[in-house]
Amino acid sequence: MYDSIIRGGTIVDGLGGAPYSGDIAIRDGRIAVIGKVSGAARETIDADGAIVTPGFLDVHTHYDGQVLWDNRIDPSFSHGVTTVLGGNCGVGFAPVQEEHRRQLVEFMTGVEDIPGIVLDEGLDWKWKSFPDYLDRIAEREYSMDVGMHLTHAPLRVFVMGDRALAHEQATSDDIAKMSQLTREAMAAGAMGFSTGRIVEHRSAHGNYVPGTFADEA
C-alpha cells in the first residue's frame, strides 16, 4: 500500500531526457516507484494533462521579511518552488541593533522595492543575532524549505554602527568581530554569506548600501 500515487502525468525528471507519461508512487514521504505503478494507495491524484516535475529551487529571493508573516510563500509556491533561499544582495534584517532597524528596512525597500509599510507591519523584530533570526523562522511552518544567507549590510552596521552608514572602512577589530559573527551564523545554519557592490543598490532615501565601497581583503 502506497501513501499516494500520482497517475498519468507527463513526467519531466530533470535528468535531461525527453518527457514521458507515467505514474509516481510515494511511501513514507519518499518516491518509491516511477513508471507504471500497480497497486493501491491511500490517495490517488489524477495528473492527466499535467506536468509532474521535481520541486524547483529558487536560490535568489528576498523573502527575508515575508517568511515572518506568509507561511505559503507566494508567488514561489504557486510556481512549483519547493525551496527558497533568501538573504541575497547583501541586504537583510539580521543581526540588528534596535536603533538601526529603520535603516535596514529602508535598504530593503530601496534595493528590492518592497513597500516599507509592509515591512513595518510584518517584522516583529524578535531577534538580535543572526542565529536568533533563524530560530524565529524555525518557529513557523512553511509550504516549502527555507534557507537564509547572512548578509553583509546588517552585519557591517551591527558591528560598526553609524560608521558603516557613513561608509567608513572597517578596522582590523571590526573585521575580526564580523568574522566571528559570520562563523557563528554559519554554525547556526546560514547557507552562506552575501554582499553587494552594485552602486544602483540604494536605500529608499538614495543612500548607498553599507559594504558597497568596502576594501577588498
What is the topology?
Blueprint: E1 2-11, E2 20-27, E3 30-35, E4 41-46, E5 51-52, E6 56-58, E7 81-86, H1 101-112, H2 116-122, H3 130-138, E8 145-148, E9 150-151, H4 152-160, H5 162-165, H6 172-188, E10 193-194
Parallel strand pairs: 1-4, 1-5, 6-7, 7-8, 9-10
Antiparallel strand pairs: 1-2, 2-3
Description of the structure:
There is one protein chain. This protein is of the alpha/beta class. The protein folds into 2 domains: 2-52, Urease, subunit C, domain 1, CATH 2.30.40; 56-194, Metal-dependent hydrolases (TIM Barrel, Alpha-Beta Barrel). Helices cover 27% and strands 23% of the residues. It has 6 helices and 10 strands, in the order βββββββαααββαααβ. It has helices spanning 101-112, 116-122, 130-138, 152-160, 162-165, 172-188, and strands spanning 2-11, 20-27, 30-35, 41-46, 51-52, 56-58, 81-86, 145-148, 150-151, 193-194. Strands 1, 2, 3, 4 and 5 form a 5-stranded mixed sheet that branches. Strands 6-7-8 form a 3-stranded parallel sheet, with no helix packed on it. A two-stranded parallel sheet has the order 9-10. A hairpin with an 8-residue loop joins β1 and β2. α4 crosses α6 (172-188). The longest helix is centred in the C-terminal third of the chain and has 17 residues, at 172-188.
